[in-house]
Design brief:
alpha/beta; D-Maltodextrin-Binding Protein, domain 2
């Protein structure tokens, strides 16, 4: 359990910048006109050493249509369609306990396996800490973080009282109990994002009127109906409403400005707040994964993020390409430490 293990971390003064991210993902080019994916697949980065044989399984520790499931299906498809991984990757869903069932089964059943992967995200860390899972990242093999769905604060379009993040921060500092903010229940990553931001601006998150909904699907109608003043989640949850100009994105917790529906929305860093946070998505392996297998998947992932196919998928999904591959295990430990501290502040854990 996280609370009972000593985590060696590199803690920085930037609360969320230390969380997220070393960005890359620039495209490669060739004078011969070869596509980026073809270059990656034929570059030899994943050849000449160990390679998998037979069908590979990528586990989504949730039901079809969930964030885990969507990530698993997109990642497996991309590894195969770009030709970077020649063996078929199939997706298995193992739902239950907000991820706990899938991760526990993966740990118990796949030790040392070379043909098993599982999708991880911010929710993997928040769920493990907040719900006291017996299986944590320390029991598995972190391989890579690939993308991030950035955290964002939104208000109803036309709400002059809260039409800028500056007005929201002023209200939070003057009287945090005056605001009703809707999102998913703790320890959901959306709520933890609010806690981290409140820490950054010196506000007690426990003083806010926090109204629990089942994700953006319920919180947005509540916002439009005036039941809450603000909603928080990730960009993907709110994109269609922002495009329809029903809600206004006040600030996004991305490293750099976004495009599409969120073009022109300031980042918290633009506004002078060193706050970068989101629901990252990546891949882990089983415990005791052989070193050559870990190296294979890290090299394959480095090749994948350079492909046009990967970049197009990220545009379509509104994912930000902000990978961490080298020293990813250290990054995860740092991230887990920050999340654990945020949960102590709100009493989710002791």
């Amino acid at each position: 359990m996280f609370m009972k293990k000593k985590i060696s971390v590199l803690v920085s003064g930037l609360l969320a910048c230390s969380l997220l991210f070393s960005a890359c993902g620039t495209s490669s080019s060739s004078s011969s006109g070869t596509s980026a994916s073809s270059q990656s697949a034929s570059s030899g980065e994943t050849s000449g050493a160990w390679e998998p044989s037979g069908t590979i399984t990528m586990v989504a520790a949730a039901a079809a249509g969930s964030g885990y499931d969507t990530s698993a299906r997109q990642f497996s498809k991309l590894y195969n369609e770009t030709g970077i991984v020649k063996q078929t990757i199939k997706v298995d869903n193992d739902a239950g306990g907000a991820g706990q069932v899938g991760y526990t089964n993966f740990y118990n059943n796949e030790k040392g396996a070379t043909d098993q992967l599982i999708v991880a995200s911010t929710a993997t860390i928040t769920g493990a800490i907040g719900n006291n899972w017996e299986v944590t990242y320390e029991d598995l093999t972190p391989i890579c973080k690939l993308v991030v769905d950035s955290w964002v604060i939104v208000s109803k379009t036309g709400n002059d009282k809260y039409d800028s993040i500056e007005k929201v921060i002023e209200a939070l500092k003057n009287d945090p109990s005056s605001l009703k903010i809707g999102a998913a229940a703790p320890p959901d990553p959306d709520y933890i994002g609010l806690v981290l931001f409140c820490q950054k601006i010196g506000v007690d998150p426990n003083a806010i009127q926090y109204v629990v909904y089942d994700g953006g699907g319920e919180s947005v109608p509540a916002l439009l109906g005036g039941d809450v003043d603000l909603c928080i989640s990730t960009v993907g949850e709110f994109s269609s409403y922002v495009e329809a100009q029903q809600i206004k994105a006040l600030a996004v917790a991305s490293e750099n400005s976004l495009s599409g529906a969120f073009e022109g929305v300031p980042t918290f860093k633009d506004l002078g707040y060193d706050f970068v946070y989101g629901n990252w998505r990546g891949i882990w392996g089983p415990s005791d994964m052989p070193a050559e297998c870990l190296e294979y998947w890290q090299n394959a992932s480095k090749a994948l993020i350079e492909t046009d196919e990967f970049k197009q998928t990220c545009d379509d999904m509104q994912w930000i390409i902000e990978p961490v591959i080298d020293d990813y295990d250290v990054w995860v430990a740092d991230f887990a430490s920050e999340i654990e501290e945020a949960m102590r502040v709100t009493g989710i854990i002791e």
